[in-house]
Amino acid sequence: MLHKFVISTVASIAMACSLAVAEPGPLKDIPELLPLNHWSGTWTAQVEKPKPRTGESHGDWIVDGRYLQVRWKLDADKDTPATSGTYLMTYDVKQKVYRQWHFNSDGFTGEATGEWDAATNTMTWTARNAPNRTTTNRDRFPTADVRQWAMTITDQTGKAVFETSGKHQRRKD
């Protein structure tokens, strides 16, 4: 009898542990978090301009589904060292705005606010992290497994001083 009890207890603990480590997904109480789920999973990255580079990213829900953490890396090429970083995204229910924080291996840190356009499946992030500079990043999801993005940095007159763009493809592994 004790043997059956021990087996039953161990099985219950194992099931509880497996449920505890499962990705929680976005917090159900905040429906505005759902669009951020587009970034979850593992992606192959392709920078198209200013010059081609490859890499990958992986997004996981953390803190009980309140934040999405995306870890990314770009491979080195003959002119550019490998770089990596992390960004966190959430929806601020008090301010009614999406928020994103960046931490890159080259020392760059930044903060952006976002607006989700459900009609086009596009998130537009805006950051004012450098004096006299505005960074706008648009992430568009034409399908559940494709993310097209473009980033433009403008000066105080609105003139583009840097542009980059690329595409991510969700991996099925």
What does this structure look like?
- The chain is mostly beta strands.
- The chain has a single domain, classed as Lipocalin, CATH 2.40.128.20.
- The chain is built from one helix and ten strands.
- The chain has a ten-stranded antiparallel beta barrel.
- The chain is globular and about 45 Å long.
Helix content: 10-25%
CATH homology superfamily name: Calycin beta-barrel core domain
Please tell me the total number of domains: 1
Which CATH class applies here? Answer: Mainly Beta
**Could you say which overall geometry the principal axes of the C-alpha atoms support?**
globular
Compute the gyration radius: what is it? 20 Å
Number of strands: 10
Which sheet architecture does the biggest sheet show? 10 strands, antiparallel, barrel
Strand order of the largest sheet: 1-2-3-4-5-6-7-8-9-10
Q: pLDDT under 50 segments (min length 5)?
A: 1-22
Number of helices: 1
N→C terminal distance: 43 Å
Q: Would you tell me the structural class of the helices and strands?
A: mainly beta
SSE succession:
HEEEEEEEEEE
What would you say the CATH architecture is? Answer: Beta Barrel
